[in-house]
Amino acid sequence: MLSLRNTLSAFALSWIATQPVLAINGPNGNSINIPGTPASAVGTTTLLTPPSNMTIKHITIGHGIQNFTCASPSATPVAIGALANLYDVTSFALANETGLAGIPPIAAFQPVDFASNSSLTIAGFGTFPRIGNHFFTSAGVPTFAFPTLNELLSGKSLATINAPAGSNPGPAGTGATTWLDLGDKGGSIGLSGVYRILTAGGLPFKTCQGQNSTISVPYAASYWFLDLTDTSNTLAAGAASPSASASPAVHTNIAPRFHAANIFVVALVTFGLNAWLM
Ligand SMILES: *[C@@H]1O[C@H](CO)[C@@H](O)[C@H](O)[C@H]1NC(C)=O
Ligand SMILES: *[C@@H]1O[C@H](CO)[C@@H](O)[C@H](O)[C@H]1NC(C)=O
Ligand SMILES: *[C@@H]1O[C@H](CO)[C@@H](O)[C@H](O)[C@H]1NC(C)=O
Ligand SMILES: *[C@@H]1O[C@H](CO)[C@@H](O)[C@H](O)[C@H]1NC(C)=O
Ligand SMILES: *[C@@H]1O[C@H](CO)[C@@H](O)[C@H](O)[C@H]1NC(C)=O
């Protein structure tokens, strides 16, 4: 087991070392690098460079399933959505960007538990709290909800590239799902976009032969969430620490954007998820 993990990590470290990177402001005011642009990508050859007015807000591991439908044995599986828990790895990733690449190949092989709020424990890496979840709305919008942070991203696709050759194929052996860059579709709260990179598993079977009419393929990935740089946040601007009486910038800034309609959407989606879980 240990040698399997070390082998997986060695692969992960070798890809990350060879990938060009997309520089972006980190939450601590320093520039950090999103591993981007697999050299082996087919089609679009790069993810988009993050706008200079954006800052990384959270780095999470997503662990869950990618769903597909199969119309007939001769059909090709069609993506219909995904469901994943989001675990906060921000501190780990900022301290050890290369180490982060070792997590999805291990997480993808662990059982998924959508019903509890349990943390993700990866031996040798740490224990990471669950801070949100990823799902698709009934209209097919990729959505990321962080209820206790009052943050929501309604995503729209900006760029998609194939995972680099040698990416972890996941427990179903089908291959690593795409790397992608989502922007704000509108109606997001406190988040403006996300990069999904360092994927493991999640691609469909090549054909529907021998498959059920709906398929769920386990996967894990890292998700790097961005928002407009909060210039009222003196820590991000690299100035002196705010006084103890200063209110948390993240909440004061997003409050005006948290409209009743958004609360309704979150409530509706949460209700739907709970109904499904029951
Ligand atoms: C952030 O930068 C992008 C790209 O340069 C620009 O289109 C957008 O208007 C900027 N947003 C704000 C709020 O300044
Ligand atoms: C994904 O498939 C599972 C069954 O494996 C189902 O319970 C779930 O509702 C589906 N979710 C989406 C978003 O398609
Ligand atoms: C980064 O994480 C990996 C995996 O846990 C570990 O082997 C490595 O020593 C870490 N590097 C640093 C600089 O902490
Ligand atoms: C889930 O766990 C996170 C991290 O431990 C915590 O912040 C959050 O309040 C919990 N959510 C629920 C619904 O229990
Ligand atoms: C199809 O679904 C049944 C019932 O959920 C399951 O037992 C079976 O393993 C599935 N077949 C495949 C090929 O996944």
From TrEMBL:
Matching InterPro entries: DUF3455 (IPR021851)
Keyword RNA-binding in record: no
Transmembrane segments: 258-277
Stretch forming the signal peptide: 1-23
Keywords carried by this UniProt record: Membrane, Signal, Transmembrane, Transmembrane helix
Cited PANTHER family: MALATE DEHYDROGENASE, MALATE DEHYDROGENASE (AFU_ORTHOLOGUE AFUA_2G13800)
Record-given protein name: Malate dehydrogenase
Source organism: Oidiodendron maius (strain Zn)
